[in-house]
Amino acid sequence: MPDTPHNRITYFPEASIAGIALPERFTFPFFYEPHPLTVIAANELQHYLETQTDLDHNFGLIEGQEGLVIGKMFGVLVVEDNQGRLGYLSAFSGKLADSNDHDRFVPPVFDMLVEDSFFLKEQYILNDINDRVKQIEESEDYQLLKIQFEELSAQSLREIAAFKKHLKSNKAYRKKLRERRKNVINETEYARFEAYLIRHSHYDNHQFNLLADRWKKQLEEIQTELVRLSDTVENLKKERREKSGALQQQLFEQYVFLNKDKKEKSLHAIFSETVFGKPPAAAGECATPKLLQYAFSNNYKPLAMAEFWWGAPPKSEIRKHKQYYPACNGKCKPILKHMLEGMTLDENLLLKNLGEGKKLEIVYEDDSFVVVNKPAELLSVPGIQVQDSVYTRLQFEFGDIEPLIIHRLDMATSGLLVVAKTKEAHKEIQRQFIKRTVNKRYTALLSKVIDAEEGTVTLPLRGDLDDRPRQLVCFEFGKKAVTRWKVVERKETTTKVHFWPLTGRTHQLRMHSAHELGLNAPIVGDDLYGTASNRLHLHAAYLEFTHPVKGKIVSFEIKEDF
Q1: Could you read off the pLDDT of 411-456 as tens digits, one per residue?
Q2: CA 268 – CA 249 distance, rounded (Å)
Q3: Which of 111, 346, 388, 410 is the catalytic position?
Q4: Which of these, 383, 409, 380, lies nearest to 394 by C-alpha position?
Q5: Cα(445)–Cα(539) distance, rounded to whole angstroms?
């Protein structure tokens, strides 16, 4: 049903868009340059956010503002209405100021926060279960029982161990007595003596059993009460899991997405066709699906989209205030595949061979290996869609010899790459890479002026499971990543640096450059963590290792061309 309570569309003044041609195809949402109309829309929305006073949300832009700092992804969708008028819709990802309902912004696909909704009712039940679990686990009686059980268990082990030692000592003493008396007294006296020792042994065993039984009974009394409380907690947690799973499934069915032909598909149906099998958390809450849903529901024709980040960055991701970003892969890609079905999209540049026509220069070659200068945008190895790569070109160059890849460079990175020509050379040089005895130096141009002269970045990294190939800083599960750096040259708005990666994580130099806890200066042209340009200004300039046959140090250097 069309949305009526608020005016969600913002129309462009004709003067502001005069002379701007309409896009011929809809934006490819995962790799795009914002269309001029979306830039105008985004600028207007950003001005609104800068001047609004009604939103009680802390974006982290005003010093001293109270509340949890939460930056947000916002989206704009340029549309054409039934009368041919041009305007745009606005949306935010997730909730804003703990609410889904705000003037100017489109509603969610499904509003779980509506009063008396099944979600809130079930949430109250889940919250009650949480409170009951918390009440038991944090109760003084439960905590005292746990402490008492642990202390008495430890005490029982000590006493039993001490008594066992005492029994062992008594047994040894009896053995000595037997040896002394065996050849001294007659058989009748020895038999009476042996009977005495046996009674002594039985007495020791009886005392041990009494001690063990006493501790068992004492611990069982406490354990019975602990088990009763623990079973209550586990039953509550089981009930919570079952109710939470049922609620999640019900939510998945409520999120029903349209496409231009008004064909419906639930969140559950969409993700059942993926390798994940079920939707990830917060799927369907991103800006672009909300915008398209509202447009299709109200018979608006979508023309172009763009998303930008507003506010302070999250601690783990690279997000810059006011910067444009593509739609995410993990949550949005399966949804948008359905929603954009039948629409003509801009070319997917991710499938284009951007390295085509770029020369692969051979810097050095012998019978063991070859060193090449890989141009920016050429793959190191064949991709799923693009086969052209360092590997395939060398395969053609070598003829009967199979190129053996030892290490790789990101497609966007240029510079030195060593490729083995024999299994022996491959094994030896790869061993040097694993042992980290290979000396590598990169040159990068950073997008701002760095004050410090040199330093080391040690931010641990892991893949973003919801938005590959992006990486995250993660102090809990991330892998160790260490980069040494030094300033080479400063200009008015940029800094040229040398990087020495001491580990080899995916996008390590790009992340350590861009993250606010690193250098906080994205590499120029970084379309993932910064702003796109003619190329990524990152070059593998120097490579040094031990020759796999001759055993001497060999080094190669190619200066960057930016």
Answers
A1: 999 999 999 999 999 999 999 999 999 999 999 999 999 999 999 9
A2: 8
A3: 410
A4: 380
A5: 9
d(CA 388, CA 354): 10
**DSSP secondary structure code for residue 359 in this structure:** -
Question: Cα(118)–Cα(160) distance, rounded to whole angstroms?
Answer: 57
Kindly compute the dihedral angle of the four CA atoms of residues 237, 238, 239, 240, in this order, to the nearest 10 degrees. Answer: 50
**118 — alpha (psi -120 to 50), left (phi > 0) or beta?**
alpha
Measured between alpha carbons, how far is residue 384 from residues 140, 468, 500 in Å?
A: 59, 15, 30
Two tokens, residue 326: 């593509």
- Per DSSP, the residues of 269-338 read HHHHTSSS-SPPTTTT-SHHHHHHHHHHHTT-EEEEEEEEEESSPPSSS---TT-EEPPPTTTHHHHHHH
Residue 6 confidence (pLDDT) above 50: no
Q: What are 172's two structure tokens?
A: 């040894």
Alpha helices in 459-527 (DSSP H): 508-514
Mean pLDDT over the full length of the chain: 92
Give the containing element (helix H, strand E) for 445. strand 439-446
The amino acid occupying position 265 is: K
Contact 484, 456 (CB under 8 A): yes
Band the pLDDT of 183: cuts 50, 70, 90. Answer: confident
pTM above 0.90, yes or no: no
Q: What is the DSSP letter of 25?
A: S
Range of weakest confidence among 242-251, 358-367, 494-503, 518-527? 242-251
Per-residue pLDDT tens digits for 58-116: 999 888 777 788 999 999 999 999 999 999 999 999 999 888 889 899 999 988 766 66
- Say which amino acid occupies 510: R
Type of residue at 75:
G
Active site residue 101: no
Rounded-to-integer distance, Cα 436 and Cα 426, Å: 15
For residues 365 and 421, what is the distance between their CA atoms, to the nearest angstrom? 9
Q: Quote the CA–CA distance of 215 and 46 in Å, as a whole number.
A: 71
Beta-carbon count within 10 A of 134 CB:
11
Tell me the two tokens of residue 539.
Answer: 């070059």
User: What is the mean pLDDT of the segment spanning 355-375?
Assistant: 96
